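Revision sheet: structure tokens.
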Amino acid sequence: MIRRLLIYVLLLALPNCIGGDGWAVSTKAQEPDASAAYVDSGLHVIVAVQGHVGVKRRGWSNYAPAMFGTSLRRGDLLRLEELSHVKVVCAGLTISDATRGISGVPCPAAKPVLRYRGDLAIQTRGYKSVSFPVVISPRRTKLLNQHPTLRWTPIEGATNYRVIVRGGDLNWSTEVDSNTRLVYPENAPGLKARDAYKLIVIANNGRRSDEEAEPGLGFTVLTADEAKEVRRDEQRIRELGLPDVPTRLLIVYLYTAHGLYAESIDRLEELSQPLQEPAPARLLGDLYLAVGLSRAAETRYLLALELSKKANDVEGQALGHEALGRIYESLGNRDQVTKHLKSALESFKQVGDQRTVAQIEERLAMWKR
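Predicted:
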């Protein structure tokens, strides 16, 4: 999965500005410097596709359709038919054009700002109905904003909640009505870098969010130097001159590379238009899974799968089915596990990913025992 590719794909609907002057910035592709020690961690993202374009990952024997938002790493190949066109935002935040025919990633060697994060996925745990408030955000995340939006699930019949932020020498609390969202106030005590904090929500019926007995559900804040770096790179992304949606989603990639999962989720959930492409839905699924919210992840993966089928996104279907298979494995749902893993198997066979095929066949065999 894009556990192998950060989070494989992103970005929403493609503006009708490819092949003209609609993109404010374009740089000539350069030959990569294989001697650069840092290039392998870089993540490159397709931001525009016109015509028929295929991608073949390292280890695949066949090509699959490349989509708006497909992410690339060194070793991947692109195949462009005549009159096809691709623009790629490179890991170092330049924009390059892929050439017609078969070529590698058309990006110069540069210190990557967009980076592969192989640790995004966590051990999937099953979900079950609960009668206590569940913290949605922030959890299992770092924060750039020292006044984050605090969110939790509602409890039927609750008329108010006590909200507590605890950690280091801080023990702040306030009362709210039936709302389940609160911005940490400007006049509240400041959150300190490196201190570990936890949001606790207590409903007026006595049920508490810390009844969720999971480790690592807290959050930390970036240091001043770390925050400065992120904000600097965010400004560089904005200066690329891309439309709003690609800009916003590239920023999500930047945030994710720094462990800012809560704010990445917020950026995607705040999109003004409905999700119309599979990539951002899968990205949301990955992020929700990373913070341990399997039910929210399931909903986004199901949407991504539906969109992938409509777009003939073979890799997206493989990734969506495999992710759903893992979620249902954690629930012990044999029928759904078998259904999704078999579908994932067929898609991975289609692209010729023999290594993943073997892994899925082994998982299916375990469910037949």
